[in-house]
Write a structure and sequence with these properties.
Beta-Lactamase, 2 domains, six-stranded antiparallel sheet, two-stranded antiparallel sheet, about 45% helix
């Protein structure tokens, strides 16, 4: 989104620069294919020389890098490292990992843990079960309309807000992706009634997942989500019924331990024991 020039003109130059710098980081964090200097300048609504000064500084600080072949900018893992250090200080990862590991071992499948960041869900930990390792790309943005976690989050919002968020974004991703707003709103109504979200070949062919929200004890506020993902070649309807019950139990356990005290930091990409990865 271009920077509001009226606001920029009324602010000190250093504050405008900070806003533009943070906008570049956010843009790159969501740009799987990277961004060119022209792309960044256009989004910021500035000339290329200003965009180059910002990207040059961020590159010097290792928050981004420029591909030597296509000359496009990409976010580095140092960005996620900052968030992980914050999570580490809150004991969030260390406190939640035993319950997530137990869930993965009991089901043998991939367990994903997400927290709300700037009021949107972001995956922060994956625990793999013994049956097979399904890979999750840490830099991949979550598709809200096709993933179980994304839909579970959308179900916590009013319909008017859902329409605003999904406007122009209901694109087909897999075989059963919901691309009709009326159908999506009906789906979210059902999720609100049951507290359980399901994605069946909506985000990836041959893959299904189920997710539930995490709420602190005695609170109606959602702080995160936990989900189980499995290939349909080995997980049937009966399996997913069992996963639903296990997820609801795990969400209660995780909610009972919120908020968490301070602890040591984690670094990006750390693997804590076999089958558990901090994203």
């Amino acid at each position: 989104m271009p920077v509001n020039t009226n606001i920029a003109e009324a602010q000190p130059d250093n504050l405008v620069t900070v806003r533009r710098t943070m906008a570049v980081l956010e843009m790159l964090a969501d740009a799987v294919s990277g961004l060119s200097l022209s792309d960044i300048a256009k989004e910021l609504d500035v000339n290329k020389s200003i965009a180059l000064r910002i990207t040059g500084t961020l590159e010097e600080l290792n928050y981004l890098y420029r591909d030597s072949e296509n000359r496009r900018f990409y976010a580095s893992y140092k960005i996620s490292n900052v968030g992980l250090r914050l999570l580490g200080r809150a004991r969030l990862l260390s406190q939640c990992q035993p319950e997530l590991r137990r869930l993965a071992e009991e089901t043998g499948e991939l367990v994903l843990f997400s927290v709300l960041d700037r009021d949107q869900p972001r995956w922060v930990m994956a625990v793999t079960g013994s049956r097979r390792r399904l890979q999750v790309e840490p830099m991949t943005s979550m598709e809200f309309h096709s993933t179980a976690t994304g839909k579970a989050w959308l179900a916590t919002l009013p319909d008017a807000e859902v329409k605003r968020i999904l406007s122009g974004r209901l694109r087909p991703i897999a075989t059963n992706t919901i691309t009709d707003m009326k159908q999506m709103l009906a789906e979210l109504k059902a999720i609100r009634a049951t507290g359980i979200s399901f994605s069946n070949e909506e985000n990836e062919v041959g893959i299904a997942s189920v997710a539930v929200p995490i709420r602190p004890a005695g609170s109606s506020s959602t702080v995160g989500f936990v989900s189980i993902t499995a290939p349909l070649v080995r997980a049937n309807d009966e399996d997913f019924e069992r996963y639903r019950a296990l997820l609801l139990k795990a969400a209660r356990v995780l909610g009972d331990s919120w908020p968490l005290p301070a602890t040591a930091e984690f670094s990006d990409g750390v693997t804590i024991g076999e089958g558990l990865t901090v994203l």
